[in-house]
Amino acid sequence: MTRSKIYKIAGGLALVGILAVVVVYYRLPNRHKAIVKTYLLHHSGWVKNDWEIDNHLQRYLMASPEFYIDGIYKSMEGPKSSNYVQLSPKKELLWITGFHVKALNANNHRRISNDFICHTNIDFNDVRYFSNFHLEKRIGKQYPRMTSLSHGQEDFTFPRGYGVPMQGNDLLFVTTESLNHNIADARFFIRHEVEIDYATKANTLKPLMSRTVYIMLPYDKIDPFKSPIDPGKGYCIPVETKNHSYDDGQGNKLSGHWVIPPGKSHYRSSVDTQLQMDSDSIRLHAAAVHVHPFSTSLTLWDKTAQKAIFQSKIKNHKNKIGLEKIDAFSSEEGIWMFRNHQYELVLEANNTTNINQDMMGSMFLFFYDQELDAILHKK
Q1: Which among 135, 171, 272, 338 could bridge 130 via Cys, Cβ 3.0 to 4.6 Å?
Q2: d(Cα 277, Cα 302) in Å, to the nearest integer?
Q3: Are 157 and 98 in contact (CB under 8 A)?
Q4: What region, left, alpha or beta, does residue 314 occupy, with left being phi > 0 and alpha being psi -120 to 50 degrees?
Q5: How far apart, in whole angstroms, are the C-alpha atoms of residue 25 and residue 21?
């Protein structure tokens, strides 16, 4: 076989390979396309792919790598990046007191609309975190997410006198994701600036522990994407079955990311298992909220007492898709919740478009941690 023929065969195989890659890429869901594009941009060196860190004045400030916005990215679909955070190189007790995120123009670092912020997740290593305080029995009890900021609630601060304690050299894992509901012909780069507020030598602060609760709705595991036969039973159509899909322990499938039809709708889900109330009563002091556009309220409901613990009212944009404001909960006095009561999350939505939209409903709850307070006081 001649060399020229070998080159022709190799070239033909390469062309077939490229076409196959292109076909596979265009068949990917939007969120997976974003992952591929972001990976190529960051690892090719075409854009800034490092986190920029500034840690002074008891705040940890960092700017994400650049995100390329090149079309519509609904919730959970946009380019994203993750980074490990160490508030201090020293093994000292620090108190986290607040979280903030804002979107920036990648070229001039000027602030732009929060419509380009999907969410910013703050996770912790539960093995290391609880071991540092000799609370090993808490390891593995829940997903180790401290909180999440999202579109409509880009700032969250604990009430005065409270904070989340952690050792300065412990690690947080921060993931921030971009969003674009409205600009179909977008072609620009953005960044996210994330800030974590903390205090030092704050002996007067009281510790908070976090619990994440979220709506989970049953779906047909045999044919998950068909319309529910009996909507009155609370069945849903999941957005997908790979992520945010759960088992209720009895073989039934539940989804935390589902489809809502046009018009008004109402969803509710028990959160008793997620609360993990070990003591007879716990006192709620703060709550951050994560929902998607077209939500109008999310309520933590005491089913036993038939009253709301906290209702987050949600304001949507009027002339475009997006969330303008989500109410958070913050209270120095706190609200008592009881182990012998049943609790639910109740979500109200109003899909003002003529097509199906996706939905989630979560709360990040912060309770006074009496056990940890006793440990810290002894120290």
Answers
A1: 135
A2: 14
A3: yes
A4: beta
A5: 6
Percent helix / strand / coil, the chain, rounded to 5: 20, 45, 35
The residues of the chain that CATH labels 2.60.120 are: 26-206, 210-369
Pick from 227, 122, 133, 225: which is nearest to 171 by CA?
Answer: 122
Topology of domain 26-206, CATH: Jelly Rolls (2.60.120)
Give the neighbor-by-neighbor strand order of the sheet with 343-351: 263-270, 343-351, 295-302, 307-316, 323-326
- Burial (CB < 10 A; 0-12, 13-18, 19+), residue 266, is exposed
The token duo for 127 is: 């093995």
Candidates 348, 340, 249, 358; CA nearest to 303 is 340
Please say whether the beta carbons of 345 and 271 come within 8 A. Answer: yes
- d(CA 235, CA 227) in angstroms, rounded, equals 9
Which residues contact residue 57 at a Cβ distance below 8 angstroms, ignoring those fewer than 6 apart? Answer: none
pLDDT at 280: 81
Here the tokens at position 283 are: 């006192």
Say what the pTM is. 0.86
Higher per-residue pLDDT: 45 or 230? 45
Q: Which of 210, 146, 208 minimizes the C-alpha distance to 369? A: 208
Q: 232 pLDDT exceeds 60? A: no
Those residues whose C-beta lies under 8 Å from the C-beta of residue 6, and which sit 6 or more positions away, are none
CATH of segment(s) 210-369 = 2.60.120
Look at the block and give the residue holding tokens 């002091």.
Answer: 285
Q: Rounded distance, CA 289 to CA 298, Å?
A: 8
pLDDT band at 41 (very low <50, low <70, confident <90, very high): low
